[in-house]
Design goal:
Helices cover about 55% and strands about 20% of the residues. With about 450 residues, it is an alpha+beta fold. The strands form 4 sheets. The chain has a 6-stranded antiparallel barrel with strand order 1-10-14-12-11-17. The protein has a 4-stranded antiparallel β-sheet with strand order 2-9-7-4, with no helix packed on it. A hairpin with a 5-residue loop joins β13 and β14. The protein has 4 domains: about 50 residues; about 130 residues, Efflux pump adaptor protein, beta barrel domain (Elongation Factor Tu (Ef-tu), domain 3), CATH 2.40.30; about 50 residues; about 190 residues, no CATH class. The longest helix is centred in the middle third of the chain and has 77 residues. It is rod-shaped, with a radius of gyration of 58 Å.
Amino acid sequence: MTDLQTISRGASGDGFVVDAGDAIRARSVRGEQLLVWVMLACVVTFFVWAYFAVLDEVIRGSGKVIPSSQVQVVQNLEGGIVKQINVAEGDLVARGDVLLTIDDTRFDSSLQESRLRTLSLKAKAIRLRAEAEGQDELPAFPDEINQALPELYVQERELLDERRRELEANQRILSEQLTQKQQAITELKSRAERLERSLGLTERELRVTRPLQAQGAVSEVEVLRLQRQVNDLRGELDEARLSVPRAEAELAEVEQRRVELDAGFRKEARTELSEVNAELSSMSAGNVALEDRVLRTQVRSPIRGVVKSLQVRTVGGVVQPGMDLVEIVPVGDSLLVEARVKPRDIAFLSPGLPAKVKLTAYDFAIYGGLDAQVEHISADTFVDERDEAYYLVRVRTSEPDLVKDGKSFSIIPGMTAEVDILVGEKSVLSYIMKPVLRARASALREP
């Protein structure tokens, strides 16, 4: 309002021009002042932002993917004739994949023969157990025996029946002998009773005859005859009485033999069963070894990895025992990346620091990278072909493959990569001031 009044008052003369110029200059000064304040505010705002804003401080190295463990050499213990080759160099194989197959004819034949022998022994063991337990019927065989050897049940049942009949025949013989001994004892006792009665009568007759002989009514010859008869009867009676215990002992012996016959039959079965079980244990161990041989005819990969070299290329070729067949570069559940880091960047590195692996084969902007962790830092520097020193730093990734939109991209040893190791955070201001501080530190030094 003051400016307008000044212009109005000077409208009739040169004073108008002077007042208008002053007004324009005054307005220009205020604009410049405003611009300065705006610029100052921007600078202050920038420095405040630079002070509080932080950026990751990373140390960068270049390197390549290396095997997470030593190269695996696959061999075969027995060797043989190559039947089939399933892989080629460069193939990615999983743990347990069949690399090649060796003809298993001789091992499989031995295994089948051993298995049949084992089944026969199991059938025999069932029959012997039935004999040892006194069973009259043979228990049913397991399906594995019936399917492999269906005729074996009939054979073992007939053998059980035959041995049972043999036992019963021997038992009948002993029973007959027992009956005979019992009859002999009865006869001996009866004879002893008869002799005892006859002896009593003869002694009585002798006592009656002696007075008559003294009177002369009977001759002495008759007395002697009676005396001799008494002596004979006494001898026969003693013999009969002594024969009874002997016959009873023989009877007890026959009874014992009859008991021992059955016990011996079962004992023999148990002894033979123990031998069969021992042989079965030995056969089982042998079968495991034969099965292992047959399984080893399928040469399998011990790890997940990439086939580096194939030493066998001819189907029908002969493989020597212990010969190297396939070399496999391991590809584990994680990757190991070996990077070269300059000595000037090594001070703040330590195992356990996080890192990011960027594979040159896959564009980082499209496929991203892999999270990793520092695992090892070399104790000393190495020198490359250009005589430049470097430290070897190994980082291990958390995943074995790159994944993008649900699709997995495999990574194999030898691929080159860039490794960014996060060592801390710095404000933007510290990055801006770094050249200034460096210049200040060296300002008073002689060049």
